[in-house]
TrEMBL record:
Top-level division of the source organism's lineage: Eukaryota
FAD-binding domain location: 7-246
Protein name: FAD-binding domain-containing protein
GO terms of molecular function: FAD binding; oxidoreductase activity
Species per Swiss-Prot/TrEMBL record: Extremus antarcticus
InterPro entries: FAD-bd (IPR002938), FAD/NAD-bd_sf (IPR036188), FAD_aromatic-hydroxylase (IPR051704)
SUPFAM superfamilies: FAD/NAD(P)-binding domain (SSF51905)
Keywords: FAD, Flavoprotein, Membrane, Oxidoreductase, Transmembrane, Transmembrane helix
Transmembrane regions listed in the UniProt entry: 7-24
């Protein structure tokens, strides 16, 4: 029997939670420590969804129904004009093999992370307000990890970097600044809870575009007291260096600077922009970030350090599913290799990296979907109106299903998981 692994996970989010679940399934006596920069598990943030092979994985975890029970209950997406009148509605498909913009598993990021950690939280050690400062790869295959605040250094069999877009571990592994692997998609987003039901009971999300790549969105919130999730998205073109620089600077300075910039940018925006700006100021969970891909040339260091989830392959719209798949495959390869870490990491990279590159594909979709000019918005609206009116989206799904096609899947080995105790 293999000696229990002693593992440090940097990051207490979805990727870290999925990995911890499967590791304790594969090796129940494994020692897991998680360091998380936040003072507690984050329960705020955007809604995320689960697609492709990740759907099969949550079923294997026995968590599908729990995730459905805690979903946002969003039924589809409605595009609205400046008066709030819908002109195109795309509903969820009701299927898991073909999903629309609204997934069958639409759930808030923090809620999903909490569900993943539920079965394991008493079997691992969680250290909050802490990060990894640096690591030193040892000749014996282990890794020495030094923490930022406590300054302590401990030896582990494996260091899992699940610490997001700006992963310092990724930067050290590649010998480069973390931002050098960030592929900017020209989208900045803000998320917050509105303390009233601005959708008036509707379970359809509402999306409105103004010129200049400005988006106001309202999404359902499952809270019983009647709330709404508010979103502002700022979509910039590659040539608009000035606007992008202002957004990045505000993001760097913090929430107050970012909210001030949003108030300036959306001062003359239509629909419900003004009341949403007011609600933004009254919220207590404001969060802002960029949409970006991580294009890392490597996912492991030929030793005992590995990138997982957004730290290695952030992909807006598909990143949560990739994180779930990545955690499953990483542990599966540890299991297949008899918990020989270096071999498992190479196999993991060989399976995941090609699929990631294929999945990241066209990064101009948000620019197409959110034009800068009034005539661009008009053309986009007309196309959406035609597609929705003629039900071309449903026709395409029906034809694809008849031909046996489905959403892009990652073929995985059949890992010999031990039976649950």
């Amino acid at each position: 029997m293999a000696k229990p692994l002693n593992i440090l996970i940097s990051g207490g989010g979805i990727a870290g939670g999925a990995f911890a679940y499967w590791l304790l399934r594969a090796q129940p006596n494994a020692l897991i420590t998680i360091v998380e920069r936040a003072p507690a598990l984050r329960l705020t943030g955007a809604s995320v969804d689960i697609r492709s092979t990740a759907v099969d994985i949550i079923k294997k975890m026995g968590m599908e129904q729990t995730i459905r029970d805690h979903s946002t209950k969003e039924e589809g997406m409605s595009w609205v004009d400046s008066n709030g009148k819908p002109f195109a509605i795309f509903r969820a498909t009701g299927r898991t093999d073909f999903q629309s913009m609204t997934s069958e598993y639409e759930i808030h990021r923090g809620t999903l992370a909490k569900i993943f950690f539920g079965p394991t939280e008493e079997r691992l050690s969680m250290i909050f307000d802490e990060t990894v400062d640096h690591y030193d790869q040892r000749d014996d295959g282990k890794v020495d990890v030094t923490l930022t605040n406590s300054k302590t250094t401990k030896t582990y069999d494996l260091l899992v970097a699940a610490d997001g877009l700006g992963s310092r571990i990724r930067g050290q592994m590649l010998g480069a600044k973390p931002r050098e692997q960030i592929h900017d998609e020209g989208v900045h987003a803000a998320y917050f809870t509105i303390k009233e039901d601005m959708l008036r009971g509707s379970k359809l999300a509402a999306w409105h575009n103004d010129t200049g790549g400005r988006v106001v969105m309202l999404r359902p919130d499952p809270h019983p007291e009647g709330r709404t999730r508010g979103h502002f998205m700022c979509v910039t073109t590659r040539d608009d260096v000035e606007t992008k620089a202002k957004l990045n600077q505000a993001l760097k300075e913090g929430n107050e600077s970012y909210m001030k910039l949003l108030e300036e940018r959306y001062a003359d925006a239509g629909w419900v922009a003004k009341p949403v700006l007011k609600a933004m100021r009254e919220s207590d969970d404001f969060y802002c970030s960029i949409f970006a891909q991580i294009r890392s040339p490597r996912l492991q260091n030929d030793g005992a350090v590995v990138l997982l989830g957004d730290a290695g392959y952030a992909t807006p719209g598909f990143g949560t599913s990739l994180a779930i798949m990545g955690g499953y495959i990483l542990v599966g390869e540890l299991l297949n290799s008899g918990f020989e870490v270096s071999t498992a990491l190479k196999r993991y990279e060989g399976l995941v990296q090609p699929f990631v590159k294929k999945s990241q594909g066209d990064d101009n979709m948000m620019q197409y979907l959110n034009p800068q000019t009034w005539w661009g918005v008009w053309i986009r609206d007309t196309i959406l109106w035609l597609v929705a009116g003629l039900k071309l989206d449903k026709l395409m799904i029906m034809v694809s299903a008849m031909l046996g096609m489905q959403d892009s899947q990652l073929a995985m080995p059949d890992y010999p998981w031990p039976k649950e105790e």
